């Protein structure tokens, strides 16, 4: 079928009252970004639908991209016809023939925005129903829950036909919930946390700490490649890399082993919070899941959160590891996340770290390092890049991976 447009149904935003216009504009902008390399498309955002006119573009390729845009409930490829019922009948038969098998249940559902059209909705439903049954007698009409609904929309500029409804990504348009910083490691959890935050409309920027030479260029490249994997949901993503070597060395030299992790995390959080303020973000996101590892007990969160009043949001907090892995596989970050490159935290992780660090002691041990000076130096060394969907940073051959395993 040579489709002429994709009709996009908005998700939750239809309930958002007076913010509706902002939501629609943002969704339309995000869809344009996701489809930037299809210059022939025209976008027409309306109150209850977004119409994307294809002008010859491949409908399948366009729909694949649209499937990643948050804020879309569903979409349907449709075809615009002249307002000529003979043509509509002929095309309806073609459309149903493509999906036909004996016993297929269907109904015709007509909407009219032009109430002056010569036939009303019931007449059109009955007319097309008869036409289809005559052409394909083994079709079965079913009003409730048919397998195929042939949708007909009578508008001033033509009659639109569609018969497929494809589920969208759901959620809210990225950018409608404010800006946040994601603390992105190379692990499984934080990319999933980032995906979930974007699904709720957050305009997310990545903050990644790395510690050369203890961590290799490959570990940094892996974090960037993970960013490229989740970038399609946002159009593109800012990646902020923070040099962390000096801080880790200082902590390792001065702080007792049991408190290394807690003090490291406090420094990471302080720096992320500074970056957040500089970039006018509202919250910080991370990939912590309650009780999953030693640094993710509630006591540990108390000791780490102590350095800021900024909300720390944890999208995967109550998910089990298996549930997180399932999402990581769905969004295709899992295989990359499990690649065995050293992370800056694991490298300095002592064999026995405190799972229930004491807040007063944590504060005390921290006085042993030059907190402000170290933060200033790290901030001075940050580098920012923009990462686009599908970009590659990690070039590796299988033999090398095998040697690391
Ligand atoms: N190098 C890093 N740069 C930025 N954030 C980090 C880094 N390391 C850890 N984090 C943040 O701290 C969180 C907890 O990290 P930790 O290593 O304890 O847990 P994890 O379960 O392995 O998480 P992940 O799978 O995301 O690495 C991470 O989810 C991430 O948000």
TrEMBL record:
<keyword id="KW-0808">Transferase</keyword>
<feature type="binding site">
    <location>
        <begin position="208"/>
        <end position="209"/>
    </location>
    <ligand>
        <name>ATP</name>
    </ligand>
</feature>
<keyword id="KW-0067">ATP-binding</keyword>
<dbReference type="GO" id="GO:0005829">
    <property type="term" value="C:cytosol"/>
</dbReference>
<dbReference type="Pfam" id="PF22025">
    <property type="entry name" value="ThiI_fer"/>
</dbReference>
<feature type="binding site">
    <location>
        <begin position="183"/>
        <end position="184"/>
    </location>
    <ligand>
        <name>ATP</name>
    </ligand>
</feature>
<feature type="binding site">
    <location>
        <position position="296"/>
    </location>
    <ligand>
        <name>ATP</name>
    </ligand>
</feature>
<dbReference type="InterPro" id="IPR049961">
    <property type="entry name" value="ThiI_N"/>
</dbReference>
<dbReference type="GO" id="GO:0005524">
    <property type="term" value="F:ATP binding"/>
</dbReference>
<dbReference type="InterPro" id="IPR050102">
    <property type="entry name" value="tRNA_sulfurtransferase_ThiI"/>
</dbReference>
<keyword id="KW-0547">Nucleotide-binding</keyword>
<dbReference type="GO" id="GO:0140741">
    <property type="term" value="F:tRNA-uracil-4 sulfurtransferase activity"/>
</dbReference>
<comment type="pathway">
    <text>Cofactor biosynthesis; thiamine diphosphate biosynthesis.</text>
</comment>
<keyword id="KW-0820">tRNA-binding</keyword>
<keyword id="KW-0963">Cytoplasm</keyword>
<comment type="similarity">
    <text>Belongs to the ThiI family.</text>
</comment>
<dbReference type="GO" id="GO:0052837">
    <property type="term" value="P:thiazole biosynthetic process"/>
</dbReference>
<dbReference type="InterPro" id="IPR004114">
    <property type="entry name" value="THUMP_dom"/>
</dbReference>
<dbReference type="GO" id="GO:0009229">
    <property type="term" value="P:thiamine diphosphate biosynthetic process"/>
</dbReference>
<feature type="binding site">
    <location>
        <position position="265"/>
    </location>
    <ligand>
        <name>ATP</name>
    </ligand>
</feature>
<dbReference type="Pfam" id="PF02926">
    <property type="entry name" value="THUMP"/>
</dbReference>
<dbReference type="InterPro" id="IPR014729">
    <property type="entry name" value="Rossmann-like_a/b/a_fold"/>
</dbReference>
<keyword id="KW-0784">Thiamine biosynthesis</keyword>
<dbReference type="InterPro" id="IPR020536">
    <property type="entry name" value="ThiI_AANH"/>
</dbReference>
<comment type="function">
    <text>Catalyzes the ATP-dependent transfer of a sulfur to tRNA to produce 4-thiouridine in position 8 of tRNAs, which functions as a near-UV photosensor. Also catalyzes the transfer of sulfur to the sulfur carrier protein ThiS, forming ThiS-thiocarboxylate. This is a step in the synthesis of thiazole, in the thiamine biosynthesis pathway. The sulfur is donated as persulfide by IscS.</text>
</comment>
<keyword id="KW-0694">RNA-binding</keyword>
<protein>
    <recommendedName>
        <fullName>Probable tRNA sulfurtransferase</fullName>
        <ecNumber>2.8.1.4</ecNumber>
    </recommendedName>
</protein>
<feature type="binding site">
    <location>
        <position position="287"/>
    </location>
    <ligand>
        <name>ATP</name>
    </ligand>
</feature>
<dbReference type="GO" id="GO:0002937">
    <property type="term" value="P:tRNA 4-thiouridine biosynthesis"/>
</dbReference>
<dbReference type="Pfam" id="PF02568">
    <property type="entry name" value="ThiI"/>
</dbReference>
<dbReference type="InterPro" id="IPR049962">
    <property type="entry name" value="THUMP_ThiI"/>
</dbReference>
<dbReference type="InterPro" id="IPR003720">
    <property type="entry name" value="tRNA_STrfase"/>
</dbReference>
<dbReference type="GO" id="GO:0004810">
    <property type="term" value="F:CCA tRNA nucleotidyltransferase activity"/>
</dbReference>
<dbReference type="GO" id="GO:0000049">
    <property type="term" value="F:tRNA binding"/>
</dbReference>
<dbReference type="InterPro" id="IPR054173">
    <property type="entry name" value="ThiI_fer"/>
</dbReference>
<feature type="domain" description="THUMP">
    <location>
        <begin position="60"/>
        <end position="165"/>
    </location>
</feature>
<dbReference type="GO" id="GO:0009228">
    <property type="term" value="P:thiamine biosynthetic process"/>
</dbReference>
């Amino acid at each position: 079928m040579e489709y002429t447009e994709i009709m996009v149904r908005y998700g939750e935003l239809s309930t958002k009252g007076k913010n509706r216009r902002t939501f629609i504009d943002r969704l339309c902008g995000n869809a344009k970004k996701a489809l930037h390399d299809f210059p022939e498309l025209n976008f027409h955002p309306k109150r209850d639908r977004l119409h994307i006119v294809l002008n010859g573009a491949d409908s399948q390729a366009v729909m694949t991209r649209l499937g990643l845009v948050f804020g879309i409930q569903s979409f349907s490829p449709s075809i615009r016809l002249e307002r000529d019922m003979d043509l509509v009948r002929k095309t309806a038969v073609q459309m149903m023939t493509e999906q036909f098998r004996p016993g297929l249940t269907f109904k015709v559902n007509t909407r009219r925005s032009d109430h002056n059209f010569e036939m009303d909705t019931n007449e059109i439903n009955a007319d097309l129903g008869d036409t289809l049954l005559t052409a394909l007698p083994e079709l079965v009409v079913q009003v409730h829950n048919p397998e195929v609904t042939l949708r007909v929309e009578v508008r001033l500029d033509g009659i639109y036909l569609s018969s497929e409804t494809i589920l969208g990504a759901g959620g809210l348009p990225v950018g409608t919930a404010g800006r946040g910083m994601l603390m992105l490691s190379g692990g499984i959890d934080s990319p999933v946390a980032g995906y979930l935050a974007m699904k709720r409309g957050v305009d997310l920027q990545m903050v990644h700490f790395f510690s050369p030479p203890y961590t290799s260029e490959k570990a940094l490249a892996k974090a960037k490649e993970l960013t490229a994997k989740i970038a399609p949901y946002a159009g593109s993503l800012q990646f902020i890399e923070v040099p962390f070597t000096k801080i880790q060395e200082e902590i390792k030299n001065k702080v007792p082993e049991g408190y290394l992790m807690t003090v490291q995390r406090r420094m990471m959080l302080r720096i992320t919070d500074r970056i957040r303020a500089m970039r006018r973000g509202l919250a910080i996101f991370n990939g912590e899941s309650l009780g999953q590892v030693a640094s993710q007990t509630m006591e540990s969160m108390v000791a780490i959160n102590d350095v800021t009043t900024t909300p720390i949001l944890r999208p995967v907090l109550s998910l089990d590891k298996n549930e997180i892995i399932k999402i990581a596989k769905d969004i295709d970050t899992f295989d990359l996340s499990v690649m065995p490159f050293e992370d800056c935290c694991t490298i300095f992780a002592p064999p026995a770290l405190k799972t229930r660090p004491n807040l007063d002691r944590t504060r005390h041990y921290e006085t042993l390092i030059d907190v402000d000076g170290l933060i200033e130096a790290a901030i001075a060394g940050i580098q920012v890049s923009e990462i686009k969907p599908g970009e590659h940073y990690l070039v590796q051959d299988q033999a090398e991976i095998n040697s690391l395993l």
